[in-house]
Request: fold
Amino acid sequence: MKVIVTGATGGLGHNLVLHVKQLGWEVLALGRNETIGHDLGVRFKSVDLSDEKATTHAFESASVVFHCAALSSPWGSDEAFFNANVRATQNVVNAMKYHAVPKIVHVSTPSIYFDYRDHRDVKESYIAQTFVNAYAQSKYEAEQVVLQSDVHSIILRPRGIFGEYDQALIPRVERIARRGFLPLIKGKNPIVDITYVGNVVHALCLAATKQIPSKSIFNITNDEPKPLREIFELVVQTLGLHVRFKPLPYGMMLFIARMLEHLANRGWMHEPPLTRYGVGLIATDQTLDIQNAKEVLGYAPVFTIEEGMKRYASWRNQTV
Reply:
């Protein structure tokens, strides 16, 4: 089976490429980072997916496209998110039509559920009335591009991906932790889901190979909701750090985040170290219902969170 992986030099795409290569699938990897791309051990093309002609030229015939590419960040301009997430997705769909690629497995995000309120067991049908940032807005619009196309489409919404080649969750926690403490919201210890990257890769492969109705959407998690503090403790233990936890009032955290966002908007820093969205994430319950993935996709986590952390630690020790 021949597959195309976009975002192949990002954390999820990197893991997916290595996995399907082991399965013996033929892979065309697309990404921006040429250094990482040429180390993947598969055919690689460097491409900016927001460029329609370049995207069409980079694509080939294949059985399925794994669309993992995205600008995933708590901060950035509306234009940057639109180009990387919406326009790029439209260009991918157009390139699929041009090269007669029949199926796309599109990686979206549960950020489209987030609205600063506690939510447990969120189903795929729930969408926030107002999106909290340009990232969530653009990812929802990207979903609409896929759903409104006539290609066979499966959408996955994995929650809090961590693991080997992680460029987001654990590195962000580590940057804060190395200042000597991790902030918690005073009087709060929300229940949240995270997902080991190996389980997301497993779900992606199921979506690519199983006979599933087009336009199906699935939440993906480790199916192990945990208190936030317990997750933080696992992370710092994995990193070998000694960190104290510092409970702070929710209102104070929001005020600090607003001030930092203001400074970033004025161009005085590239990205605020704390955003209102980030504060909301550590203040509210956020767990997903994955029953649909279990019943229709046949998904069950292969690795526990603890196993995922050990695998991440082993990889990290080899690369540091």
About this structure: The chain has a mean pLDDT of 94.
